[in-house]
Amino acid sequence: MRKKYLIAVELGLVCIALLLISACSNSSHAKTSSEEAGLLVDEANLEMPQKISVYFSNEENYLVPITYSLDKVEDRQIKNLIKIAVDKIIEGPQGEFLLQTIPEGTLLRDWCVSKGTAILDFSQDFLRMNEVETRLAINSLCLTLGNLPTIENVQILIEGQVVKEMQGIDTELPMTKRYANYRGDTEPEAVYNVYFGDINGMYMIPMAFASRDDDALPERAVEKLLQGPGEEKLVPTVWPGTALLNFEIEEGTAHIDLNSRVKEYGGGSANEKLLLNSLL
Question: Do 199 and 164 lie in a common domain?
Answer without folding.
Answer: no
